[in-house]
């Protein structure tokens, strides 16, 4: 048989095998016949590969008489596929790579070793969730192309003004200090994808892995902004404006005092930030007429702002301190002026390796990023953010 006849013969064997196994009642004789068909198909596959190798070798041995090439033109085709189509193609390629298959293999009902693959149905996984809050949305985010240290100048001229021209001349320069913004090298622990699991499930593996990595980054950076990480993330420390009057309790008057302690210059971008545990106490606060202090937003789950207190929006920060003696669980002010999160482009970089875990038949997915942060409060007398200390 020639090459074309061999290919057609193998395709017919595979088609007949699938038809036989799709019958309502499959007997032992049918199974034996299908096994024989698959064995013949596997033998023909070897013949096809040998024919292709011979043809390639013959082609290489022929003399070439190629005319000189002209200038190479760049005809890069624009990828017109949608995001969903590109993501689906990447998912198929990743699954095929893990299994060690050729991408052109289309007959997924027959395994490479000739055995029949029985598909296993699977739906999208139900994933556990943990909120990091929205602190990353309200601080200043600086993106740089390199990771060298960056100086953030802090200019305070709030104590200076005009004087009578009869006053003796003295210099009144602004107070200029600065914060050094450094970055840490961050890494996620590897996500191992088991080959057997990849073969059995049919949901979008690429999207699940990317989402898990992005959420790990958001949780880690949000916690580092609020609590620090002992390295190049310095915790957001809002100056304490007042102390609550009752032990381990937040009262109406405390929030009034905290709001009025902030200089009005920062009111335009001011918001409250605290955890949902603290929100539970705030939602129980009412004025003398029984009206609630906290007014929820109907779209709080979508907009990220859960409501307002005295007309100023509330942002959730799940890593903020709890309402306990000595803690500062509630902040109020312009968070973007009070803290700078620095990230090095391109952000999160995802890398894959199948060699390190080859004995486990798994693919490892690891992500890397470079980020850091520090408070940028320019004045101690008129700070851009203030906090409440619990008695």
From TrEMBL:
Q: Which InterPro entries match?
A: Phage_capsid, Phage_capsid-like_C
- Domain Phage capsid-like C-terminal spans what residues? 114-378
Coarse class of the primary localization is: virion
SUPFAM superfamilies registered for this protein in UniProt: Major capsid protein gp5
Q: Which Pfam families match?
A: Phage_capsid (PF05065)
Q: Where in the cell does this protein reside?
A: Virion
Can you tell me where the transmembrane regions are? none
Q: Where is this region: Disordered?
A: 53-82
Superkingdom of the source species? Bacteria
Protein's name in the database: Phage major capsid protein
* Regions of compositional bias (Basic and acidic residues) in chain numbering: 72-82
């Amino acid at each position: 048989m020639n090459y074309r006849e061999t290919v057609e013969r193998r395709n017919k064997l595979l088609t007949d095998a699938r038809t036989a196994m799709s019958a309502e009642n499959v007997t032992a004789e049918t199974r034996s016949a299908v096994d024989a068909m698959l064995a013949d198909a596997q033998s023909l596959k070897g013949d096809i590969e040998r024919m292709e190798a011979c043809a390639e070798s013959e082609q290489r041995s022929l003399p070439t008489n190629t005319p000189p090439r002209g200038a190479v033109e760049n005809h890069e085709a624009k990828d017109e596929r949608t995001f969903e189509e590109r993501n689906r193609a990447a998912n198929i390629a990743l699954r095929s790579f893990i299994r060690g298959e050729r991408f052109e293999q289309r007959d997924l009902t027959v395994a490479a070793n000739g055995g029949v693959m029985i598909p296993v149905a699977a739906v999208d996984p139900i994933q556990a969730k943990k909120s990091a809050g929205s602190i990353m949305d309200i601080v200043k985010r600086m993106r740089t192309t390199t990771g060298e240290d960056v100086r953030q100048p802090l200019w305070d001229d709030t104590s200076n003004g005009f004087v009578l021209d009869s006053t003796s001349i003295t210099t009144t320069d602004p107070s200029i200090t600065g914060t050094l913004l450094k970055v840490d090298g961050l890494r996620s622990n590897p996500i191992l994808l088991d080959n057997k699991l990849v073969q059995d499930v049919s949901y979008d593996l690429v999207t699940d892995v990317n989402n898990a990595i992005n959420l790990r980054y958001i949780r880690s950076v949000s916690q580092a902004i609020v609590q620090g990480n002992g390295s190049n993330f310095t915790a957001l420390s809002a100056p304490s404006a007042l102390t609550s009057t009752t032990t381990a309790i937040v009262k109406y008057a405390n929030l009034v005092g905290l709001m009025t302690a902030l200089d009005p210059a920062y009111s335009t971008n001011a918001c409250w930030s605290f955890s949902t545990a603290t929100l539970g106490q705030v939602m129980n606060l009412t004025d003398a007429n029984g009206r609630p202090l906290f007014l929820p937003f109907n779209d709080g789950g979508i907009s990220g702002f859960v409501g307002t207190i005295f007309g100023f929006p509330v942002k959730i920060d799940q890593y903020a301190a709890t309402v306990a003696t000595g803690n500062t669980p509630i902040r109020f002010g312009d968070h973007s002026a009070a803290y700078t999160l620095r990230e090095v482009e391109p952000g999160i970089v995802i890398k894959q390796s199948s060699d390190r875990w080859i004995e486990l038949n798994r693919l490892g997915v690891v992500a890397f990023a470079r980020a850091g942060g520090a408070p940028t409060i320019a004045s101690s007398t008129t700070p851009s953010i203030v906090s409440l200390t619990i008695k």
